[in-house]
Design a protein that fits this description.
The protein is mainly beta. The protein has one domain: 6 Propeller (Neuraminidase), CATH 2.120.10.30. It is about 5% helix and about 35% strand. It is built from 3 helices and 29 strands. It has helices at about 140-145, 155, 190-200; strands spanning about 30-35, 40-45, 50-55, 60-65, 70-85, 90-105, 115-120, 125-130, 175-180, 185-190, 210-215, 220-225, 230-235, 240-245, 250, 300, 305-310, 315-320, 330-335, 345-350, 355-360, 365-370, 390-395, 400-405, 415, 420-425, 435-440, 445, 450-455. Strands 2, 3, 4, 5 and 6 form a 5-stranded antiparallel β-sheet that branches. Strands 17-18-19-20-29 form a 5-stranded antiparallel β-sheet, with no helix packed on it. Strand 23 and strand 24 (about 400-405) form a beta hairpin. It is globular and about 55 Å long.
Length: about 475
């Protein structure tokens, strides 16, 4: 995610998205709770639910977070996958002790095990996030990164480590794995962080944060919300294709009154600027130097920040975008990847801060908004918890309705079960995450919203039957 027009970037890597009209309260049932920064939801062929828990980081080495200016994101082994037996209500963590990064001490905005997906044979694949400069991950990629020509904003947004003693030592982050759910063995297939370090497709700062996965035939599509890149990787680990998600020019973008470079409070750290490390505090009476910030004039070249991805009923792959700072309402889009050209085409627009998308049994597109307004409007001391969000349904003929809003907060994943139930990863920021099932979704029309459903393939495509990648 690179905001080149104003000379700096502010990445929202873990979450922070939304905009929908009010809807009547939907009832829901909680099927899992106490989750640590839950992300993607997946159903196995037997109906078992799997949740990627990115974890809470730990007391390992830290680096400045690209998504929370001046706050520290620190390493640990707290990532996991939660397995939920919906018939018995049994909730079990597997793959405990996986590499994880999160803000300290708030334990927000984790990066770790993001989401799993199954191929048609039932094999499971896992994508892991990272959230930072690739060269800081481990010794191997640190060596590769030496001598890289970095853009001027790199040292502000995600500075490289000066020596190997500062590395995060999280070698399993930023990758694609084939995993064995029974033995918990993992086989590395692809390293997205390394690809970003070597190629940097969107030409801005070097950031990697793989966020979600979808399986199509014998390949995996993975979105990297840090690099702004969509990858197509063979299930044998062979590279097929990658492209940078399109930016967009947006007029009259609203900015917060305060500069984005003002240090967040971040939950009571000893020092809000430097993350509470007394050895790094500025001298008494010395003000930390802040970058200059001026609201840009004219249209803003807004980054895409791709997030959720899924296979549609027409067999094509679709993905949504969060959009970049300052997350203007109504500017997030859903893209369809043209199967013939491999190019992304805008399929639907008028959303705010999309974290995930899915298709239901009737071919309706379900869009999950992390928050219904720009996240800075409702955050408290920089926290992304408890931001009001919603679920929006788009019918094959283009009608748009909100089916859930009250009770949806900072939600990070949505999925449809084999029996047609709609499940949401709710409160996806921090250690009180949950998975809820919408019991009786109420469709409430939104005549005042900006919406366009573009006829790439026509509504008849929705009628085609196809296997959903994450169900």
């Amino acid at each position: 995610m690179k905001l080149k027009q104003i000379g700096y970037s502010l990445l929202t890597i873990a979450a922070g998205l939304g905009a929908a009209m009010p809807a009547e309260a939907a009832t829901f049932t909680t099927v899992a709770s106490g989750l640590n920064n839950p992300s993607g939801i997946t159903f196995g062929s037997d109906g078992t639910l799997y949740v990627g828990e990115t974890g809470t980081g730990g007391d390992g080495n830290c680096q400045p977070s690209p998504s929370a200016a001046f706050a520290e994101i620190c390493a640990g082994n707290t990532g996991s996958i939660t397995k939920v037996d919906l018939a018995t209500g049994t909730q079990t963590r597997i793959f405990n002790g996986f590499d994880s990064l999160a803000l300290q001490p708030t334990l927000e905005q984790g990066a770790g095990p993001q989401e799993i997906a199954f191929d048609f044979l039932g094999n499971a694949y896992l994508v892991t996030g990272y959230a930072g400069y690739p060269g800081n991950r481990d010794a191997e990629i640190f060596e590769v990164a030496q001598g890289a020509e970095l853009p001027p904003e790199q040292n502000l947004i995600a500075p490289p480590a000066e020596d190997a003693s500062e590395l995060l030592n999280t070698p399993d982050l930023g990758k694609l794995f084939k995993i064995d759910l029974a033995t918990e063995e993992v086989t590395e297939l692809y390293d997205f962080a390394l690809y970003e370090q070597l190629n940097n497709l969107d030409g801005g700062d070097y950031i990697s944060n793989p966020f979600a996965i979808a399986i199509q035939d014998d390949s995996a599509f993975v979105v990297d919300a840090g690099a702004n890149v969509i990858y197509n990787i063979g299930l044998d680990g062979e590279f097929i294709n990658a492209f940078a998600s399109p930016t967009q020019l947006v007029d009259n973008v609203e900015f917060p009154d305060a500069s984005p470079f003002e240090p967040p409070q971040n939950g009571g750290q000893e020092d809000p600027v430097l993350g509470g490390d007394p050895s790094q505090l500025p001298n008494e009476g010395e003000e930390p130097e802040m970058p200059s910030f001026e609201i840009p004039e004219g249209p803003l070249d807004l980054q895409s920040v791709p997030t959720g991805i899924t296979k549609g009923p027409d067999g094509a792959v679709y993905y949504g975008e969060l959009t970049g700072y300052p997350y203007p309402e109504g500017e997030a889009r859903v893209f369809r990847i043209n199967p013939e050209t491999g190019e992304p085409e805008v399929f639907a627009d008028g959303f705010t801060q999309i974290t995930d998308i899915a298709f239901d049994k009737e071919g309706n597109l379900l869009v999950l908004q992390f928050a219904d307004e720009a996240q800075w409007k409702n955050s408290v001391e920089g926290s992304l918890k408890d931001l009001p969000g919603s679920v929006i349904k788009v019918t094959p003929d283009g009608q748009r309705t909100t089916i859930a809003s009250e009770g949806i907060f900072s939600a990070t994943g949505i999925q449809v079960s084999p029996d047609g139930g709609i499940y949401v990863a709710n409160n996806g920021i921090g250690t009180n995450g949950s998975i809820i099932k919408l019991d009786d979704p109420k469709s409430v029309p939104e005549p005042g919203t900006i919406f366009a459903l573009l006829a790439f393939g026509g509504a008849s495509l929705f009628g085609l039957k196809g296997k959903r990648d994450r169900v």
